[in-house]
Amino acid sequence: MPQITVDYTAVLTDEGAFDTGGFVRALHEAVVEIAAAKPEACKTMFRDGYSAYGYNAMDQSDALVHVTIALLAGRTEETKAKLTEAVLELVRSHVTPTDGITLHASAEVRELDPSYRKYEG
What we know:
Elements: E1 3-9, H1 11-14, H2 20-35, E2 43-49, E3 62-71, H3 77-94, E4 102-111
Parallel strand pairs: 1-2, 3-4
Antiparallel strand pairs: 1-3
Helix pairs in contact: 2-3
């Protein structure tokens, strides 16, 4: 915990527009500071791929970034909202605007289901 997933349009890394290394470091720092997580507990999976925006399925003029942070229960709604806003600001600061590409960014902080378990081996 926390389990973090970053889904994004591959064109952002193809164009060198998304500083994923700088982003993940800053993201983990924000999660530790705002949500009181331990640094070694932060786990992030980046998933790049093809995305569609509206009816523009074949158009590469739109890029998407969506960050999902799943935390153990117990954080206030205020804490979750503060973390979400911080994540969006981090996306803005780690994605360089690219001519002809509109960035659509979103973030969600949710609670892990009580059935959550983990294994380290």
